[in-house]
Design goal:
The protein is of the alpha/beta class and 519 residues long. The chain is built from 15 helices and 21 strands. Its cofactor is Mn(2+).
Protein backbone atom coordinates (compact mmCIF):
# COMPACT_ATOMS: atom_id res chain seq x y z
CA UNK A 1 0.00 0.00 0.00
CA UNK A 2 1.35 3.41 -0.95
CA UNK A 3 2.20 5.81 1.86
CA UNK A 4 -0.38 8.62 1.85
CA UNK A 5 0.49 12.01 0.44
CA UNK A 6 -1.15 15.28 1.53
CA UNK A 7 -4.11 16.69 -0.31
CA UNK A 8 -3.15 19.57 -2.59
CA UNK A 9 -5.20 22.62 -3.53
CA UNK A 10 -4.79 26.19 -4.77
CA UNK A 11 -5.89 29.43 -3.16
CA UNK A 12 -5.71 33.11 -4.14
CA UNK A 13 -6.83 34.58 -0.80
CA UNK A 14 -4.54 37.08 0.92
CA UNK A 15 -1.86 34.88 2.61
CA UNK A 16 -2.10 36.90 5.83
CA UNK A 17 -5.77 35.93 6.12
CA UNK A 18 -5.52 32.20 5.38
CA UNK A 19 -7.03 30.01 8.11
CA UNK A 20 -4.25 27.39 8.13
CA UNK A 21 -1.96 25.96 10.81
CA UNK A 22 1.17 27.43 9.25
CA UNK A 23 2.18 29.51 6.27
CA UNK A 24 5.49 29.18 4.44
CA UNK A 25 7.25 32.16 2.88
CA UNK A 26 10.59 32.43 1.12
CA UNK A 27 13.63 34.35 2.32
CA UNK A 28 16.78 35.27 0.40
CA UNK A 29 20.23 35.77 1.83
CA UNK A 30 21.72 39.24 1.44
CA UNK A 31 25.41 40.08 1.38
CA UNK A 32 26.35 43.09 3.48
CA UNK A 33 23.74 45.45 4.95
CA UNK A 34 20.08 44.75 4.47
CA UNK A 35 18.44 46.46 1.52
CA UNK A 36 14.86 46.32 2.70
CA UNK A 37 15.10 48.98 5.41
CA UNK A 38 13.75 46.99 8.37
CA UNK A 39 17.07 46.34 10.06
CA UNK A 40 17.48 42.69 9.08
CA UNK A 41 20.13 40.86 7.08
CA UNK A 42 17.59 39.03 4.96
CA UNK A 43 15.31 39.78 2.05
CA UNK A 44 11.80 38.36 1.97
CA UNK A 45 10.87 36.78 -1.34
CA UNK A 46 7.84 37.76 -3.36
CA UNK A 47 4.63 36.21 -2.07
CA UNK A 48 5.25 37.43 1.48
CA UNK A 49 4.26 41.09 0.99
CA UNK A 50 1.07 41.08 3.06
CA UNK A 51 2.74 39.13 5.85
CA UNK A 52 5.64 41.58 5.95
CA UNK A 53 3.13 44.43 6.21
CA UNK A 54 1.27 42.71 9.05
CA UNK A 55 4.52 42.48 11.03
CA UNK A 56 5.05 46.22 10.57
CA UNK A 57 8.54 45.85 9.13
CA UNK A 58 9.92 43.70 11.94
CA UNK A 59 9.78 40.26 10.33
CA UNK A 60 13.22 39.95 8.73
CA UNK A 61 14.97 41.34 11.80
CA UNK A 62 13.17 38.83 14.02
CA UNK A 63 13.99 35.95 11.69
CA UNK A 64 17.64 37.00 11.69
CA UNK A 65 17.67 37.01 15.51
CA UNK A 66 16.32 33.47 15.39
CA UNK A 67 19.29 32.45 13.25
CA UNK A 68 17.83 32.58 9.76
CA UNK A 69 20.42 33.15 7.03
CA UNK A 70 18.42 32.49 3.86
CA UNK A 71 20.56 29.47 3.01
CA UNK A 72 18.76 27.11 0.59
CA UNK A 73 16.46 24.71 2.43
CA UNK A 74 16.94 26.29 5.87
CA UNK A 75 13.62 26.56 7.75
CA UNK A 76 13.00 29.07 10.58
CA UNK A 77 9.68 28.96 12.42
CA UNK A 78 8.10 31.92 14.23
CA UNK A 79 4.90 32.15 16.31
CA UNK A 80 2.74 34.93 14.88
CA UNK A 81 0.83 35.64 18.13
CA UNK A 82 -2.21 36.86 16.21
CA UNK A 83 -0.33 39.16 13.84
CA UNK A 84 -1.77 37.11 10.94
CA UNK A 85 -4.45 34.42 10.91
CA UNK A 86 -2.03 31.47 10.79
CA UNK A 87 -0.43 30.79 14.20
CA UNK A 88 2.97 29.93 12.66
CA UNK A 89 5.00 31.44 9.85
CA UNK A 90 7.90 29.38 8.49
CA UNK A 91 10.59 31.10 6.44
CA UNK A 92 12.43 28.77 4.07
CA UNK A 93 15.74 29.79 2.61
CA UNK A 94 16.01 30.29 -1.16
CA UNK A 95 19.63 31.44 -1.34
CA UNK A 96 20.64 34.75 -2.95
CA UNK A 97 17.93 36.70 -4.75
CA UNK A 98 17.98 35.80 -8.46
CA UNK A 99 18.60 38.60 -10.91
CA UNK A 100 15.48 39.39 -12.90
CA UNK A 101 13.83 36.00 -12.44
CA UNK A 102 12.23 33.71 -9.90
CA UNK A 103 14.41 31.10 -8.17
CA UNK A 104 15.14 28.00 -10.28
CA UNK A 105 12.43 25.31 -10.11
CA UNK A 106 14.72 22.90 -8.26
CA UNK A 107 15.38 25.52 -5.57
CA UNK A 108 11.61 25.92 -5.13
CA UNK A 109 11.11 22.14 -5.17
CA UNK A 110 13.65 21.58 -2.42
CA UNK A 111 12.34 24.53 -0.41
CA UNK A 112 8.80 23.20 -0.52
CA UNK A 113 9.96 19.77 0.59
CA UNK A 114 12.11 21.06 3.44
CA UNK A 115 9.36 23.34 4.76
CA UNK A 116 6.63 20.71 4.74
CA UNK A 117 8.86 18.17 6.46
CA UNK A 118 9.83 20.73 9.14
CA UNK A 119 6.15 21.46 9.81
CA UNK A 120 5.19 17.85 10.61
CA UNK A 121 2.37 17.90 13.13
CA UNK A 122 0.51 20.71 11.36
CA UNK A 123 -2.75 19.72 9.74
CA UNK A 124 -2.85 22.25 6.89
CA UNK A 125 0.07 24.29 5.58
CA UNK A 126 -0.06 27.08 2.99
CA UNK A 127 2.88 27.89 0.72
CA UNK A 128 3.27 31.48 -0.45
CA UNK A 129 6.52 31.20 -2.39
CA UNK A 130 7.66 33.29 -5.38
CA UNK A 131 5.95 32.24 -8.60
CA UNK A 132 6.72 34.07 -11.87
CA UNK A 133 3.89 35.51 -13.98
CA UNK A 134 5.40 34.55 -17.35
CA UNK A 135 5.93 31.37 -19.37
CA UNK A 136 7.97 29.92 -16.48
CA UNK A 137 4.96 29.95 -14.14
CA UNK A 138 3.81 26.33 -14.80
CA UNK A 139 7.28 24.91 -14.11
CA UNK A 140 7.58 26.88 -10.88
CA UNK A 141 4.12 25.83 -9.66
CA UNK A 142 4.86 22.21 -10.56
CA UNK A 143 8.13 22.37 -8.62
CA UNK A 144 6.58 23.86 -5.49
CA UNK A 145 3.71 21.37 -5.56
CA UNK A 146 5.87 18.30 -6.16
CA UNK A 147 8.39 19.35 -3.52
CA UNK A 148 5.71 19.90 -0.90
CA UNK A 149 4.01 16.56 -1.51
CA UNK A 150 7.26 14.61 -1.61
CA UNK A 151 8.64 16.39 1.45
CA UNK A 152 5.74 14.98 3.48
CA UNK A 153 6.62 11.39 2.54
CA UNK A 154 7.25 9.05 5.44
CA UNK A 155 7.63 5.27 5.22
CA UNK A 156 5.34 3.79 7.86
CA UNK A 157 7.91 1.18 8.87
CA UNK A 158 7.45 -1.81 11.16
CA UNK A 159 7.68 -0.44 14.69
CA UNK A 160 5.25 -2.07 17.12
CA UNK A 161 4.96 0.99 19.38
CA UNK A 162 4.43 4.66 18.53
CA UNK A 163 7.60 6.75 18.68
CA UNK A 164 7.45 9.44 21.37
CA UNK A 165 7.60 12.90 19.88
CA UNK A 166 7.13 11.72 16.31
CA UNK A 167 4.58 14.02 14.74
CA UNK A 168 2.30 13.05 11.89
CA UNK A 169 3.15 14.35 8.40
CA UNK A 170 1.30 17.40 7.11
CA UNK A 171 -2.13 16.32 5.90
CA UNK A 172 -3.07 19.13 3.50
CA UNK A 173 -1.05 21.57 1.40
CA UNK A 174 -2.43 24.82 -0.01
CA UNK A 175 -0.41 26.71 -2.64
CA UNK A 176 -1.03 30.44 -3.06
CA UNK A 177 -1.32 31.49 -6.71
CA UNK A 178 -2.58 34.63 -8.48
CA UNK A 179 -5.70 32.86 -9.81
CA UNK A 180 -6.82 29.61 -8.17
CA UNK A 181 -9.41 28.95 -10.89
CA UNK A 182 -6.95 29.10 -13.80
CA UNK A 183 -7.17 25.88 -15.81
CA UNK A 184 -3.41 25.61 -16.35
CA UNK A 185 -2.75 25.90 -12.62
CA UNK A 186 -5.39 23.29 -11.81
CA UNK A 187 -3.80 20.96 -14.35
CA UNK A 188 -0.44 21.32 -12.60
CA UNK A 189 -2.03 20.36 -9.28
CA UNK A 190 -3.57 17.25 -10.83
CA UNK A 191 -0.28 16.22 -12.37
CA UNK A 192 1.69 16.89 -9.19
CA UNK A 193 -0.59 14.59 -7.21
CA UNK A 194 -0.24 11.79 -9.78
CA UNK A 195 3.53 12.14 -9.92
CA UNK A 196 3.91 12.31 -6.14
CA UNK A 197 1.87 9.13 -5.72
CA UNK A 198 4.11 7.39 -8.27
CA UNK A 199 7.27 8.50 -6.48
CA UNK A 200 5.82 7.49 -3.10
CA UNK A 201 4.94 4.05 -4.47
CA UNK A 202 8.49 3.64 -5.76
CA UNK A 203 9.91 4.66 -2.40
CA UNK A 204 7.60 2.26 -0.56
CA UNK A 205 8.66 -0.72 -2.67
CA UNK A 206 12.35 0.17 -2.31
CA UNK A 207 11.99 0.58 1.46
CA UNK A 208 10.12 -2.71 1.96
CA UNK A 209 12.21 -5.41 3.71
CA UNK A 210 13.47 -8.03 1.24
CA UNK A 211 11.84 -10.92 3.09
CA UNK A 212 8.47 -9.36 2.29
CA UNK A 213 9.15 -8.55 -1.35
CA UNK A 214 10.71 -11.60 -2.96
CA UNK A 215 10.14 -12.08 -6.72
CA UNK A 216 6.73 -13.82 -6.57
CA UNK A 217 5.38 -11.29 -4.04
CA UNK A 218 6.82 -8.36 -5.95
CA UNK A 219 5.34 -9.66 -9.20
CA UNK A 220 1.93 -10.04 -7.56
CA UNK A 221 2.11 -6.50 -6.16
CA UNK A 222 3.11 -5.04 -9.53
CA UNK A 223 0.46 -7.01 -11.39
CA UNK A 224 -2.28 -6.04 -8.91
CA UNK A 225 -1.33 -2.36 -9.10
CA UNK A 226 -1.25 -2.51 -12.89
CA UNK A 227 -4.67 -4.11 -13.18
CA UNK A 228 -6.21 -1.59 -10.76
CA UNK A 229 -4.77 1.20 -12.92
CA UNK A 230 -6.35 -0.29 -16.05
CA UNK A 231 -3.12 -1.50 -17.66
CA UNK A 232 -2.74 -4.70 -19.66
CA UNK A 233 -0.77 -7.14 -17.50
CA UNK A 234 1.22 -10.28 -18.36
CA UNK A 235 3.12 -12.26 -15.72
CA UNK A 236 5.73 -14.84 -16.75
CA UNK A 237 6.49 -17.40 -14.03
CA UNK A 238 9.50 -19.71 -14.06
CA UNK A 239 7.86 -22.16 -16.46
CA UNK A 240 6.93 -19.42 -18.92
CA UNK A 241 10.43 -17.98 -18.63
CA UNK A 242 11.92 -21.38 -19.41
CA UNK A 243 9.64 -21.90 -22.40
CA UNK A 244 10.46 -18.39 -23.63
CA UNK A 245 14.21 -18.85 -23.45
CA UNK A 246 14.88 -16.18 -20.81
CA UNK A 247 18.18 -17.74 -19.81
CA UNK A 248 19.60 -14.72 -18.02
CA UNK A 249 16.61 -14.27 -15.69
CA UNK A 250 16.51 -17.99 -14.95
CA UNK A 251 20.25 -18.22 -14.29
CA UNK A 252 20.22 -15.43 -11.70
CA UNK A 253 17.15 -16.90 -10.01
CA UNK A 254 18.60 -20.41 -9.70
CA UNK A 255 20.05 -19.85 -6.25
CA UNK A 256 16.83 -18.75 -4.58
CA UNK A 257 13.89 -20.75 -3.28
CA UNK A 258 11.73 -17.85 -4.50
CA UNK A 259 11.61 -18.33 -8.30
CA UNK A 260 12.07 -15.45 -10.77
CA UNK A 261 9.36 -13.59 -12.62
CA UNK A 262 8.89 -11.06 -15.39
CA UNK A 263 5.91 -8.72 -15.50
CA UNK A 264 4.87 -6.88 -18.64
CA UNK A 265 2.63 -3.80 -18.26
CA UNK A 266 1.14 -2.03 -21.29
CA UNK A 267 -0.69 1.23 -21.91
CA UNK A 268 -2.08 1.82 -25.41
CA UNK A 269 -4.06 4.99 -26.16
CA UNK A 270 -6.61 5.12 -28.97
CA UNK A 271 -4.29 7.19 -31.15
CA UNK A 272 -0.50 7.39 -30.98
CA UNK A 273 2.56 7.76 -33.19
CA UNK A 274 5.33 6.36 -31.01
CA UNK A 275 5.93 3.33 -28.82
CA UNK A 276 8.13 3.60 -25.74
CA UNK A 277 9.59 0.60 -23.93
CA UNK A 278 10.70 0.83 -20.30
CA UNK A 279 12.87 -1.80 -18.61
CA UNK A 280 13.77 -1.82 -14.91
CA UNK A 281 16.06 -4.08 -12.90
CA UNK A 282 14.17 -6.04 -10.25
CA UNK A 283 16.74 -7.82 -8.10
CA UNK A 284 14.76 -8.01 -4.87
CA UNK A 285 17.91 -8.79 -2.90
CA UNK A 286 21.50 -9.10 -4.03
CA UNK A 287 23.99 -11.11 -1.99
CA UNK A 288 26.32 -11.18 -4.99
CA UNK A 289 25.81 -14.93 -5.29
CA UNK A 290 29.06 -16.87 -5.11
CA UNK A 291 30.87 -13.59 -5.82
CA UNK A 292 29.49 -12.56 -2.45
CA UNK A 293 29.37 -8.97 -1.30
CA UNK A 294 30.95 -7.72 1.95
CA UNK A 295 28.61 -7.76 4.95
CA UNK A 296 28.97 -4.01 5.53
CA UNK A 297 26.08 -2.27 3.85
CA UNK A 298 24.69 -5.43 2.27
CA UNK A 299 21.32 -4.72 3.84
CA UNK A 300 20.95 -1.80 1.41
CA UNK A 301 20.78 -4.37 -1.39
CA UNK A 302 17.06 -4.52 -0.72
CA UNK A 303 17.10 -1.44 -2.96
CA UNK A 304 18.50 -3.36 -5.95
CA UNK A 305 15.00 -3.42 -7.42
CA UNK A 306 14.71 0.38 -7.54
CA UNK A 307 14.70 0.39 -11.35
CA UNK A 308 11.81 -2.07 -11.46
CA UNK A 309 9.90 -0.08 -8.85
CA UNK A 310 10.45 3.12 -10.83
CA UNK A 311 9.27 1.85 -14.22
CA UNK A 312 6.24 0.20 -12.64
CA UNK A 313 5.28 3.42 -10.87
CA UNK A 314 5.79 5.34 -14.11
CA UNK A 315 3.25 3.03 -15.74
CA UNK A 316 0.74 3.76 -12.97
CA UNK A 317 1.23 7.48 -13.57
CA UNK A 318 0.95 7.01 -17.33
CA UNK A 319 -2.39 5.24 -16.84
CA UNK A 320 -3.65 8.30 -14.96
CA UNK A 321 -2.10 11.01 -17.16
CA UNK A 322 -2.99 9.30 -20.46
CA UNK A 323 -0.30 10.67 -22.80
CA UNK A 324 -0.70 10.13 -26.56
CA UNK A 325 2.13 7.60 -26.74
CA UNK A 326 2.04 3.83 -26.22
CA UNK A 327 4.17 2.69 -23.28
CA UNK A 328 5.12 -0.84 -22.24
CA UNK A 329 7.23 -1.79 -19.21
CA UNK A 330 9.22 -5.00 -18.87
CA UNK A 331 10.04 -5.81 -15.26
CA UNK A 332 12.38 -8.81 -14.73
CA UNK A 333 12.64 -9.97 -11.11
CA UNK A 334 15.01 -12.37 -9.36
CA UNK A 335 16.73 -12.85 -6.02
CA UNK A 336 20.50 -13.32 -6.30
CA UNK A 337 21.47 -15.85 -3.65
CA UNK A 338 24.33 -18.29 -2.98
CA UNK A 339 23.18 -21.90 -2.66
CA UNK A 340 23.76 -25.40 -4.01
CA UNK A 341 21.67 -24.51 -7.06
CA UNK A 342 23.05 -21.01 -7.74
CA UNK A 343 24.71 -20.11 -11.02
CA UNK A 344 28.51 -20.08 -10.93
CA UNK A 345 31.50 -18.23 -12.35
CA UNK A 346 32.40 -20.09 -15.51
CA UNK A 347 28.82 -20.89 -16.51
CA UNK A 348 27.71 -20.11 -20.06
CA UNK A 349 24.15 -18.84 -20.32
CA UNK A 350 22.02 -18.63 -23.48
CA UNK A 351 20.02 -15.40 -23.46
CA UNK A 352 16.60 -14.61 -24.93
CA UNK A 353 18.11 -13.27 -28.17
CA UNK A 354 20.28 -16.37 -28.59
CA UNK A 355 23.57 -14.81 -27.53
CA UNK A 356 25.72 -16.84 -25.19
CA UNK A 357 27.29 -15.17 -22.18
CA UNK A 358 30.24 -16.39 -20.13
CA UNK A 359 29.61 -15.64 -16.46
CA UNK A 360 32.72 -14.43 -14.66
CA UNK A 361 31.15 -12.56 -11.75
CA UNK A 362 27.82 -13.64 -10.29
CA UNK A 363 27.52 -10.19 -8.71
CA UNK A 364 27.08 -8.73 -12.20
CA UNK A 365 23.61 -10.26 -12.23
CA UNK A 366 21.55 -7.20 -13.11
CA UNK A 367 22.78 -7.08 -16.70
CA UNK A 368 21.79 -10.74 -17.12
CA UNK A 369 18.12 -10.21 -16.33
CA UNK A 370 18.04 -6.87 -18.15
CA UNK A 371 19.51 -8.33 -21.35
CA UNK A 372 16.59 -10.77 -21.59
CA UNK A 373 14.00 -8.07 -20.93
CA UNK A 374 15.55 -5.63 -23.40
CA UNK A 375 15.66 -8.29 -26.10
CA UNK A 376 11.94 -8.97 -25.54
CA UNK A 377 11.16 -5.25 -25.69
CA UNK A 378 12.86 -4.98 -29.08
CA UNK A 379 10.99 -8.05 -30.34
CA UNK A 380 7.71 -6.37 -29.46
CA UNK A 381 8.74 -3.29 -31.51
CA UNK A 382 9.39 0.10 -29.96
CA UNK A 383 10.59 3.48 -31.15
CA UNK A 384 12.53 4.25 -27.96
CA UNK A 385 13.87 2.03 -25.20
CA UNK A 386 14.71 3.39 -21.75
CA UNK A 387 16.24 1.06 -19.20
CA UNK A 388 17.07 1.99 -15.62
CA UNK A 389 18.90 0.04 -12.97
CA UNK A 390 21.09 0.11 -9.91
CA UNK A 391 23.69 -1.53 -12.09
CA UNK A 392 27.22 -0.65 -10.98
CA UNK A 393 29.20 0.69 -8.06
CA UNK A 394 31.24 2.35 -10.79
CA UNK A 395 28.43 4.87 -11.27
CA UNK A 396 28.82 6.05 -7.68
CA UNK A 397 32.62 6.22 -8.01
CA UNK A 398 32.41 8.24 -11.24
CA UNK A 399 29.43 10.52 -10.63
CA UNK A 400 28.53 10.39 -6.95
CA UNK A 401 25.21 9.75 -5.27
CA UNK A 402 23.02 12.33 -7.01
CA UNK A 403 23.98 12.17 -10.68
CA UNK A 404 22.92 9.16 -12.75
CA UNK A 405 25.09 7.84 -15.56
CA UNK A 406 23.50 7.57 -19.02
CA UNK A 407 24.76 5.40 -21.89
CA UNK A 408 23.32 4.45 -25.25
CA UNK A 409 22.29 6.32 -28.38
CA UNK A 410 23.96 9.76 -28.02
CA UNK A 411 20.92 11.80 -29.09
CA UNK A 412 18.66 9.95 -26.68
CA UNK A 413 21.18 10.29 -23.85
CA UNK A 414 21.09 14.05 -24.41
CA UNK A 415 17.30 13.96 -24.10
CA UNK A 416 17.61 12.05 -20.84
CA UNK A 417 20.02 14.67 -19.51
CA UNK A 418 17.68 17.50 -20.53
CA UNK A 419 14.71 15.79 -18.87
CA UNK A 420 16.72 15.15 -15.71
CA UNK A 421 17.81 18.78 -15.54
CA UNK A 422 14.19 19.85 -15.96
CA UNK A 423 12.88 17.80 -13.03
CA UNK A 424 15.85 17.91 -10.68
CA UNK A 425 17.16 14.41 -11.32
CA UNK A 426 20.55 15.14 -12.90
CA UNK A 427 22.14 12.66 -15.29
CA UNK A 428 25.38 12.72 -17.27
CA UNK A 429 26.00 11.00 -20.64
CA UNK A 430 28.92 8.59 -20.67
CA UNK A 431 30.66 6.89 -23.64
CA UNK A 432 30.63 3.24 -24.71
CA UNK A 433 34.22 2.81 -25.97
CA UNK A 434 35.12 -0.01 -28.30
CA UNK A 435 38.17 -0.90 -26.19
CA UNK A 436 35.81 -1.63 -23.30
CA UNK A 437 33.85 -3.99 -25.54
CA UNK A 438 37.06 -5.66 -26.73
CA UNK A 439 37.99 -6.31 -23.10
CA UNK A 440 34.76 -8.33 -22.76
CA UNK A 441 35.62 -10.79 -25.54
CA UNK A 442 35.23 -14.37 -24.35
CA UNK A 443 37.19 -17.38 -25.54
CA UNK A 444 34.21 -19.71 -25.07
CA UNK A 445 31.10 -17.59 -25.64
CA UNK A 446 29.85 -14.54 -27.55
CA UNK A 447 30.66 -12.11 -24.75
CA UNK A 448 31.89 -12.12 -21.18
CA UNK A 449 29.60 -10.70 -18.58
CA UNK A 450 32.40 -8.39 -17.36
CA UNK A 451 35.95 -7.66 -18.50
CA UNK A 452 37.56 -11.00 -19.34
CA UNK A 453 40.58 -10.15 -17.22
CA UNK A 454 38.38 -8.94 -14.33
CA UNK A 455 39.78 -5.43 -14.87
CA UNK A 456 37.37 -3.00 -13.20
CA UNK A 457 38.53 0.02 -15.19
CA UNK A 458 35.48 1.59 -16.80
CA UNK A 459 33.27 -0.60 -14.62
CA UNK A 460 30.14 1.49 -15.25
CA UNK A 461 30.84 1.49 -18.98
CA UNK A 462 31.17 -2.30 -19.05
CA UNK A 463 27.54 -2.55 -17.94
CA UNK A 464 26.37 -0.29 -20.74
CA UNK A 465 28.50 -2.09 -23.34
CA UNK A 466 27.03 -5.42 -22.28
CA UNK A 467 23.43 -4.18 -22.47
CA UNK A 468 24.02 -2.81 -25.96
CA UNK A 469 24.31 -6.42 -27.16
CA UNK A 470 20.61 -6.93 -26.50
CA UNK A 471 19.22 -3.86 -28.28
CA UNK A 472 18.12 -4.09 -31.92
CA UNK A 473 20.26 -2.01 -34.25
CA UNK A 474 17.41 0.28 -35.29
CA UNK A 475 16.14 1.08 -31.77
CA UNK A 476 17.34 4.28 -30.03
CA UNK A 477 18.06 3.38 -26.42
CA UNK A 478 19.34 4.76 -23.14
CA UNK A 479 20.61 2.96 -20.06
CA UNK A 480 20.24 5.02 -16.87
CA UNK A 481 22.47 3.79 -14.03
CA UNK A 482 20.92 4.93 -10.74
CA UNK A 483 23.10 2.97 -8.29
CA UNK A 484 23.71 6.17 -6.30
CA UNK A 485 20.64 8.39 -6.78
CA UNK A 486 18.02 5.69 -6.17
CA UNK A 487 18.75 5.35 -2.46
CA UNK A 488 19.57 8.03 0.12
CA UNK A 489 21.26 6.64 3.23
CA UNK A 490 21.80 10.03 4.89
CA UNK A 491 19.43 12.29 6.76
CA UNK A 492 16.40 13.75 4.94
CA UNK A 493 17.19 16.71 2.72
CA UNK A 494 15.00 18.83 0.48
CA UNK A 495 12.21 16.58 -0.76
CA UNK A 496 14.29 13.41 -0.28
CA UNK A 497 13.46 11.22 2.69
CA UNK A 498 15.91 8.67 4.06
CA UNK A 499 15.75 5.49 1.98
CA UNK A 500 14.33 5.15 -1.51
CA UNK A 501 14.24 8.41 -3.49
CA UNK A 502 11.99 7.53 -6.44
CA UNK A 503 14.66 8.44 -9.01
CA UNK A 504 14.16 8.40 -12.03
CA UNK A 505 10.34 8.36 -12.06
CA UNK A 506 10.01 12.07 -12.85
CA UNK A 507 12.70 11.92 -15.55
CA UNK A 508 10.93 9.09 -17.34
CA UNK A 509 7.58 10.87 -17.15
CA UNK A 510 9.17 14.03 -18.57
CA UNK A 511 10.63 11.98 -21.43
CA UNK A 512 7.26 10.41 -22.18
CA UNK A 513 5.68 13.88 -22.23
CA UNK A 514 8.40 15.09 -24.57
CA UNK A 515 7.95 12.14 -26.94
CA UNK A 516 4.17 12.56 -26.94
CA UNK A 517 4.64 16.21 -27.91
CA UNK A 518 7.70 16.21 -30.16
CA UNK A 519 8.07 12.58 -31.20
Amino acid sequence: MTSPIPTLSLVDTDPAELAVDAIVIGVHSVNGDAADGDGGTLLLASGAESIVAAFDGRLTGTLALLGATGAPGEVTKLATLGTITAPVVAAVGLGPEPTGAAPPPETLRRAGGAAIRALAGAGTVALSLPLPDDEDAPAALRAVSEGALLGAYRFSGYKTKPQPGRRAPVGAVVVHVPDAAEAAAEAEVTRAEVVARAVAQTRDWVNTPPNELRPPEFADAVADAGRKAGLDVEVLDEEALREGGYGGILAVGLGSSAPPRMVRLSYTPETFDKRVALVGKGITFDTGGFSIKPAQGMWEMKSDMAGAAAVTAVMLAVAALKPSVAVTAYVPMAENMASATAYRPGDVVTMRNGKRVEVLNTDAEGRMILGDAMARACEDACDYLFETSTLTGGQVVALGKRVAGVMGTPELCDRVKAAGDQVGEPAWPMPLPEDVRKGMDSEVADISQVNAGMDRAGHMLQGGVFLREFVADDVPWAHIDIAGPSYHSGEPTGYWAKGGTGVPVRTLLALIDDIATAG
